[in-house]
Design a protein that fits this description.
- 2 copies of one chain form a homodimer.
- In chain A, a hairpin with an 8-residue loop joins strand 5 and strand 6 (80-81).
- Helix content of chain A is 2%, strand content 31%.
- Chain A has one domain (10-151): Beta Barrel (Elongation Factor Tu (Ef-tu), domain 3).
- In chain A, the strands form 2 sheets. A 6-stranded antiparallel beta barrel of chain A has the order 2-3-8-7-4-9.
- The first copy, chain A, has 1 helix and 9 strands, in the order E-E-E-E-E-E-E-E-E-H.
- The interface between A and B is large, with 72 and 71 residues.
- Strand 1 of chain A pairs antiparallel with strand 1 (4-6) of chain B.
């Protein structure tokens, strides 16, 4: 299949200068405030976004240089297939985070619950709609009994 | 910022041969069964995925040729900024669907609730984890009072 090319539409500014010690999920990043700086050429695309309390950010894990097919994730001591984890060292290094939208200031979004590295290239912004995105009672495989540790778990340098 | 290049890791096979009449969200695609055919070179990455009832597919809207910054979405008669909608005609045409995982058969995943066009290039598979991905009580902007119509609403050819 043909390669796909995307052009970043902006940059994510966050308090996380390095991966070491970073929260590993947005739900574990309460209070981590930052800005999504959209390229002004896309300003018109933000109309009505301020009505949403949460947005989904898709972005490129720009500091990842490696692809691994099996990984030992932060929440486990056993290894798993990379597609059964949220590890950044995936074949296409696309990250996905649902963050709190506090304000839209021109083409800059003030956001909170950021688990994203400072300087991360932004690929897309989608409105978060629980009626589309939530699945009650989902089975969560190896995360069962481990997901509760997400708030206390921090990243280290294992994925680069 | 530098362009980002991705190589599709597989293809999505679905019963939807054209966008006309397609369900507009996975939650509105109950019973639409298909297959995610992963390139066998990534087989190892699927280890332990069978423990999950739902997976998030990221894919490229390959039939979209246009970018629009304001759109009139299927669920409304008024226009909105594209980043406040799930329309495919976005600056980077990345789609996101949470589907039901029925079985893993080698490097082929049997999935249900597919709102994806047949032949769609697959970019990533992530495990769906409600504890990471759900936000109770989110405000949903213009979707308020409109989201309930998702099950009866079908796509047409307006986004290409």
């Amino acid at each position: 299949m043909e390669p796909v090319g995307y052009r970043p539409i902006g940059v994510i500014r966050s308090p996380h200068a390095t991966t070491d010690g970073m929260p590993i999920q947005a739900v574990a990043a309460a209070g981590a405030r930052g800005r999504v700086e959209l390229d002004p050429v896309f300003a018109e695309g933000l109309a009505d976004l301020e009505g949403f309390s949460h947005i989904v950010l898709l972005y490129h894990f720009h500091e990842v240089r490696e692809v691994r097919l099996t990984v030992t994730p932060f929440l486990d001591t056993a290894s798993h297939g990379v597609f059964a984890t949220r590890s950044p060292v995936r074949p296409n290094a696309i990250g996905m985070s649902t963050v709190r939208l506090l304000a839209v200031e021109g083409t800059s979004l003030v956001v909170e619950d950021l688990d994203v590295l400072d300087g991360t290239p932004l690929l897309d912004i989608k409105p978060y709609v629980p009626q589309f995105d939530d699945r009650a009672g989902a089975r969560i495989g190896w995360y069962t009994g481990r997901v509760e540790a997400v708030a206390q778990t921090r990243a280290d340098g294992r994925f680069r």
